[in-house]
Design goal:
- The chain has an eight-stranded antiparallel β-barrel. A two-stranded antiparallel sheet has the order 2-3.
- It is elongated, with a radius of gyration of 16 Å.
- By secondary structure, the chain is mainly beta.
- The protein has a single domain, classed as AOC barrel-like, CATH 2.40.350.
- It has strands spanning 11-14, 21-22, 26-27, 55-57, 60-72, 84-98, 105-116, 120-131, 134-145, 149-158, 165-173, 181-188.
- Strand 6 (84-98) and strand 7 (105-116) form a beta hairpin.
Length: 194
């Protein structure tokens, strides 16, 4: 989930991800107050989940949906001699709606990124997906390029009603779209060791 390389904290509000770039690959950003002091309940409710039903494969369930996010990457450093700029401790807060209520709710990421020329970005951090049944705790990694858009993968371990379950989720977003679909699989056991 890319942000401004210019150093100003920026928030992108969209359907789960990042708006397409403009002006030679510079991301489109809208100035907004920092989301750092906001709680997940300050963000919009998830939109309608897809009309298709989740698919059960025995104890595993394939799910799909959409997400709407507010993104505050925080400032990026000036590029180092290799052209890499860094951002640390940003905040991503999303409302996720899927066709399975166990993985619908509020997603909050602690976001980090390293980027090159506002055209390529490696991103990672910790994540929580919260709803009335419990909390999914996990981590994510991914990339962004002006050719691919965002490609993000998340691994979660469930608590509360979801204890004993894991959830793998992936986001993909074409660079010219604001539509950010969510796909994932809920399964018993623990995520694989990295």
């Amino acid at each position: 989930m890319r942000g401004s390389w210019a150093g100003a904290a920026a928030v992108l509000v969209l359907v789960a991800g990042c708006a397409g770039g403009s002006g030679g690959g510079q991301p489109t950003v809208s100035p907004s107050p920092s989301t750092a002091s906001r709680s997940p309940s300050d963000f919009p409710s998830p939109g309608p989940s897809p009309s298709q039903a989740p698919v059960a494969y025995g104890a595993a369930t394939l799910v799909s949906g959409m997400s709407a996010c507010s993104i505050d990457t925080g400032p990026f450093t000036s590029p180092d001699p290799t052209g890499m700029a860094h951002a640390r401790n940003g905040l991503v807060a999303c409302a996720v709606g899927t066709n399975d209520p166990r993985v619908s709710g509020r997603l909050v990421d602690q976001w980090n990124g390293d980027g090159w020329q506002a055209k390529a970005l490696v991103q990672w951090g910790t994540s929580r997906l919260l709803n009335a049944g419990g909390v999914w705790e996990g981590r994510f990694t991914g990339i962004y390029t002006t050719r691919t858009g965002d490609i993000l993968t998340y691994w979660y371990t469930g608590t509360g009603d979801y204890s004993g379950l894991s959830y793998y989720m992936w986001f993909t977003e074409p660079p010219t779209s604001t539509i950010y679909p969510v796909h994932g699989m809920i399964f018993p056991g623990k995520p694989p060791t990295p």
